[in-house]
Amino acid sequence: MVFKNSIDLYKKALNLIPGGVNSPVRAFKSVNREAPIFVKKGQGARIYDEDDNEYIDYICSWGPLILGHNHPKVIEEVKKIIENGSSYGLPTKYEVDLAELIVEIVPSIEKVRLTTSGTEATMSAVRLARAYTGRNKILKFEGCYHGHSDALLVKSGSGLLTDGYQDSNGITDGVLKDTLTLGFGDLEKVENLLRNEEVACVIVEPIPANMGLIETHKEFLQGLRRITEETKTVLIFDEVISGFRLALGGAQEFFGITPDLTTLGKIIGGGYPVGAFGGKREIMDLVAPVGRVYHAGTLSGNPIASKAGFATISYLKENPSIYKELAENTNYLVDNVEKLAEKYGVDVCVNSMGSLFTIFFVDLEKVENLEDSLKANTENFSIYFNTMLDNGIVVPPSQFEAHFLSIAHTKKELDRTLEVMEMAFKKIGEKNAK
Ligand SMILES: Cc1ncc(COP(=O)(O)O)c(C=O)c1O
């Protein structure tokens, strides 16, 4: 495969944009690549780069594209309104339609406010929890990523972890002091902490997908719900990834647990920029202009994003068998990956839930938290990533992210993926044997 145009673009971008990219993980730094690929277009399960290479895509824009690239139903709806105008800074019908659908489907949400990104949604939810409880401290879990607002960039996952650190510079001591962190899954420590400190909220990815995917134990989330109720702490489920992906009603429907606040993003914008936070009416009515917790945005609830999100969610709602099919396809890949690993003597632990999975190159029965995931062999991951890319399959350029499936990934794509995975596992096995 030739990557000339992407390499040239990257060289140019390096002089113009820090690191040549607008989100760090896109630089392909941790997988020792000369340059990332620059994408020209996407269709179904496939993307095409500026050198006209074709790839089967397991990034799916990091989650939003559960229907695949350019799904006709979404495009059709977007086309209907895109010529009317782009943004008005005034209310539109499309925001109300999307809000109505979210409230109808997500069990805990009685009222919802739309934002432009997941970062804004989690930042605002934390502010709201502080105002509601009158407390300052918050609790998050090591390796969970909730966007890049100051308070949540402590012991964080995703791009930071990929580049080998967990806390950002430029955050004040005061903010750091107010963000408490614990290992994911350690209920005893959560109980101890919440009984001894005044904490405004516990924010959690109900299925963490930013330290690689973790298979959450339901008992942990049940425990969080019980302790937060007893200590009058706000429980925030960050469902930016899991919302409308793990199940139509997200992780809260899947596990049958009702948080106080929920943050959403990705799928609810159908590939366009959007986010949301919502929850109990009593809490949400503290948001301006009803209350005095300020949240605003020039592009909040953008009509095109709202329409694309509405079309995507409506399609999911009308075709509920999608979730079963996605899980079956994921299991098909996962089962075969485990067989390949055994055949070539490669240590792996594959975690999967719904349409997400991570292949941890590690000699552990299960990866349960950040401490475990950091034991992974990133050199083996790099061989895996590069073999896949050089043979037309894009997987996340980081050991600490999840593969995303869409409904456009058919048996044909899955079988081609397994063929290339076999090449990768063979290479890793041969390297290990040396
Ligand atoms: C769980 C979670 N929360 C929040 C965010 C931030 O969303 P955004 O990138 O739209 O700001 C992300 C982004 O990947 C995420 O995975």
TrEMBL record:
Uppermost EC category:
isomerase
Q: What is its EC number?
A: 5.4.3.8
Q: What keywords appear on the UniProt entry?
A: Cytoplasm, Isomerase, Porphyrin biosynthesis, Pyridoxal phosphate
Which reaction does this enzyme catalyse, per its entry? (S)-4-amino-5-oxopentanoate = 5-aminolevulinate
Coiled-coil features, chain-numbered ranges: none
Q: Name one GO biological process term.
A: protoporphyrinogen IX biosynthetic process
- Major localization listed first in the record, in broad terms: cytoplasm
Question: Pathway, per UniProt?
Answer: Porphyrin-containing compound metabolism; protoporphyrin-IX biosynthesis; 5-aminolevulinate from L-glutamyl-tRNA(Glu): step 2/2
Which co-factors does it depend on? pyridoxal 5'-phosphate
Its localization reads: Cytoplasm
For the modification N6-(pyridoxal phosphate)lysine, which residues carry it?
266
Where in the sequence is the signal peptide annotated?
none
Q: Which domain of life is it from?
A: Bacteria
In alphabetical order, the GO MF annotations are: glutamate-1-semialdehyde 2,1-aminomutase activity; pyridoxal phosphate binding; transaminase activity
Gene Ontology cellular-component terms listed = cytoplasm
SUPFAM superfamilies, alphabetically?
Answer: PLP-dependent transferases (SSF53383)
Family annotation (CDD domains): OAT_like
Membership in a protein family = Belongs to the class-III pyridoxal-phosphate-dependent aminotransferase family. HemL subfamily.
Q: How does it assemble?
A: Homodimer.
Q: This protein is called what? A: Glutamate-1-semialdehyde 2,1-aminomutase
Q: Which organism is it from?
A: Fusobacterium pseudoperiodonticum
| Organism lineage string | Bacteria, Fusobacteriati, Fusobacteriota, Fusobacteriia, Fusobacteriales
